Amino acid sequence: MCGIFAYLNYLVPAKREEILRILIKGLQRLEYRGYDSAGVAIDSSNNAEDSVSDIAIIKKRGKVKALEEEIAASTQSLDFDREFNCHIGIAHTRWATHGEPSACNSHPQRSDPNNEFVVIHNGIITNYKDIKTFLEKKGHVFESETDTETIAKLIKHIYDTKNEVNFRQLVEAVIQQLEGAFSLVFKSKHFPGECVATRRGSPLLIGVKTRYKLSADHFPVCYSKADHDHRPNLIPTTSEPQTSDKTNEKSKDARHSDKSTSNLALQRSDSTTEFQPIGPNREVEYFFASDASAIIEHTNQVIYLEDDDVAAVSEGALSIHRIKRSIDESTVREVITLKMEIQQIMKGSFSSFMQKEIFEQTESVVNTMRGRVNFETNEVVLGGIKDYMGEIKRCRRLLFIACGTSYHSAVATRQLLEELTELPVMVELASDFLDRSTPVFRDDVCFFISQSGETADTLMALRYCKGRGALIVGITNTVGSSICRESHCGVHINAGPEIGVASTKAYTSQFISLVMFGLMMSDDRLSMQQRRKEIIQGLQKLPEQIKEVLKTDEKIHSLSQELYQQKSLLVMGRGYNYATCLEGALKIKELTYMHSEGILAGELKHGPLALVDKAMPVIMIITRDNLYPKCMNALQQVKARHGQPVVICNEGDEETIRMAYKCLEVPLTVDCLQGIISVIPLQLVSYHIATLRNLDVDCPRNLAKSVTVE
User: Fold this and answer.
1) By the number of CB atoms within 10 A of the CB, which of 309, 342, 345, 348 ranks highest?
2) Which residues in 360-419 belong to E strands, given as ranges?
C-alpha cells in the first residue's frame, strides 16, 4: 500500500539537490503501489559548519510530480548546492487509512513543531487510540488524524523521559508498545546521520552499496540484554502489546534467492556485531525501501528484514537487532543478490506498464517454464518443491488460498489438479478462509499464491495454517517476500517485475506454475501419461499462440470503441473458461470503473438471464471442449432475449461465428490451457476501454498493487 524509501550516504559526498533527486526517483519507482499523497524529510541547515541540523519536511497531496514541484519552490529556504558527507533523507507515498488525503496527514509525521523526530510508516497501528489518549494526558498536542503521528510523539516522549538511550534503543522501546502491522523508518535531529528501521507484518528491505565487492553473504543478528525482555508497558491498553512469535523458516526453493559469494565491503567489529565499511575512505550508501523496484538502480545487494528486526545505521555501520530470541529463529540475515534489471521496470516503447506487461506474456510464460519442463522427455521438475513431493503425494487434500487475480489462477486450474492428483482440491479466498476459522490438519498441504508475496490476508492465512501443522507451499513472483520466506517450500513464477496495479502476466505465469505442479504430481501414473503428454505439448505451443492473439490488438481496440460508453458488462463461460470470466470481469472493473460480472453459464437461468436485453453488452467464451454444446445452449438463450453477444471462440469455428454478434477468434489449445489464451483478449479489452475513457491504467483509483494491510 504505502511506499517507504530512505537514502543514507556516509562519506559519499552528495549535494542536497542530488539527495532530493534520489528520494523523488525512489518514490516514483513506488508509485505503482498506489497512493494519494507524498512527502520527504531532509536536513534543513544551509551551513556546513552546523553539527546539528533541523529537519525540513515537505509534503503534498496528489502525485509525486506535485511534491517535486513543491520542493522546487523551496529554493529560497534550502540551499540545493549544499554538500553533505553524511546525511539521511526519508520519503513516503501515503495511501490514506486514518484521515483523509491531505498534506497534514501525509508522511513524514513529526513529533513536535521542532521536528525533533520524524517517521514514515506503512501499515496500521491497531492500538493507536490508547497511545494517543496516553500521550494527550502527558500534554502532547496532535495535529493530524493519522495513527502514525502517535509513533512520532511516543518516541519523543520516551526520549524526554529516559536518560542515556541511543536511537536504536528508543525505537525498540516504541515498537514494544505497538500493536498491528508496520514498517517504520526514523530520522532525528538528536541523532544526525543515523537511521533506524523496523518492521512487523509489512515488508522492508535494505540495499547496501559500496565501492568494493561484498565478502560476507550474511549479517549476524544482535540480541538485546535480558532486562529488555521485561521492559514495563508504558501505555495502559486493554490488551498486551503484540510481538511476533513466528519462526523464520526459510524457503527451500533455490530460485527464491541468489546468495552472493562476492565480497561484502563491511567488516565485523571486534567488540560488537556491527559491520563497518572498509576501504581507504570507508564510504557506503544504504537504501531502505518497501520493495526492490526502488533500490535496483542503485544496488542489487539487499537484506530483507524479518518481523521485529530493528536495523540501525550509525557512523556508517549497520547492525540488526532483536529484543528477544524465539525458538528455531535464524541468527543471521542473508545478503541476497537481486536478479531484477532496471530495464524490467521501465516502460520502454509502450504507453503504459500494463500494455507492456500484456505484450510481455510471450516471454514471461517461457521464463516460467524454463529449466522446469523438458519437452523431449515430457518431464516436469519444480526444484523448489522437489524434496517435498513425497509428503505432498501422501497428503489428504490440497488447499489453495489467495486473493483477487491469484485466487482466479487457482480456480482456473482446480479442475485439472483434481484430475491429475485425484485428491480433493479446495480453493479459498484468504479473507473468507480466516473469517470461517476453517479446519486445517497436519496432513493437509496448503498453497499460498501472491504476486507480491506480501498480501496481508494471504500471509495471515499462511500463519494460521502453519500453526496447525500443515505443509506450506508459497507461489510468488517476488524474491525474499514474506510468503516466500515463511513457506516450507515454494515455486517462484519468474514472470519478472509487474508494475501495473492490474495483474496480467503474473496471472498467466501463476496458471502455468499450477499446471506444472499437477503434471509433477502425476508423473508416476501410467493412466495419466497420454493426458500429461497432451498438456506438455500444449505448453510448448503457448508462446506462439499468445503471439497470435496479440496480433488481434487492433480488432480488439475497434470492439472496445463500441463498449467504452456502456455502464455494465457481463462475461459468461463455463468449465475451464469460468475462471477466465471472473478474471476478465475483474480487469474490466479495476481499470474502467465499469460494473462487470463474471457469470457461470450453467447458472444463467437461475438469475443472471434477467439482466440480458439488447442494451446489455455480453461477452461469452465458447471454445471447442467437452462443454461446447452446453455453451452453445447458453448462447442461444442470450440471443433469444435479444442479446448481442461478443464471442471469444476458436479460429475457424464457423458454427459459433454465425451465431455471434461479433467474434474474437483465438487459437485452439488443450482444454485446460485454453484459459491462458482466452484471457488475453479480455486483458486488452479492459486496457483499451480504460484508455478510451482517459483513465490511468497503471494506477486505478482506490487500488494498490501490494495490499499489505487488511
Assistant:
1) 309
2) 373-374, 379-380, 397-402
Alpha-carbon distances of 208 from 219, 255, 285, 424, rounded to whole Å: 12, 21, 6, 46
What is the architecture of the domain spanning 347-550? 3-Layer(aba) Sandwich (3.40)
Outline which parts of the chain fall under CATH 3.60.20.10.
3-238+253-343
More confident of the two residues 79 and 325: 79
The 3-state DSSP class for residue 277 equals: strand
Cα(492)–Cα(236) distance, integer angstroms: 44
Q: Summarize the confidence of residues 574-597 as an average pLDDT.
A: 96
The CA-atom distances, in angstroms, between 299 and each of 192, 283, 286 are 24, 15, 9
Task: Please identify which of the residues 2, 631, 649, 663 carries the catalytic annotation.
Answer: 2
If we measure between CA atoms, which residue out of 600, 599, 603, 606 comes closest to residue 569?
599
Write out the residue limits of the CATH 3.40.50.10490 domain(s) in the chain: 347-550, 552-710
Q: Which helix (H) or strand (E) holds 458?
A: helix 456-466
3-state secondary structure 481-526: CHHHHHCCEEEECCCCCCCCCCCCHHHHHHHHHHHHHHHHHCCCCH
- pLDDT, tens digit (0-9, with 9 covering 90-100), for 116-171: 999 999 988 999 999 999 999 999 999 999 999 999 999 999 999 987 889 999 99
Residue 559, SS3? helix
Q: Residue 106: beta bridge partners?
A: none
Q: What is the pLDDT of residues 289-321, one digit of tens each?
A: 998 889 999 999 999 998 899 999 999 899 999
Which residues is 39 bridged to in the sheet?
59, 92
Instruction: Let me know: does 701 contact 36? Beta carbons within 8 Å.
Output: no
Residues in the chain, how many?
A: 710
Quote the mean pLDDT of the chain: 88
**pLDDT at residue 434 in the model:** 96
Could you tell me which CATH number the domain at 552-710 has? Answer: 3.40.50.10490
C-alpha cell at 246: 513466528
Q: CATH class for domain 3-238+253-343?
A: alpha beta
φ/ψ region of 315 (left if φ > 0, alpha if ψ in -120 to 50, else beta) reads: left
3-class DSSP state for residue 156? helix
Q: Within 13 Å, how many C-alpha atoms sit on residue 348's CB side?
A: 13
Q: What angle do CA 527, 365, 656 make, to 5 degrees?
A: 75
581 is catalytic: no
What one-character DSSP code corresponds to residue 50?
-
Nearest residue to 703 (alpha-carbon basis) of 588, 598, 591, 569: 591
Tens digit of each residue's pLDDT (9 = 90 or more) over 365-410: 999 999 999 999 999 999 999 999 999 999 999 999 999 999 999 9
pTM, two decimal places:
0.79
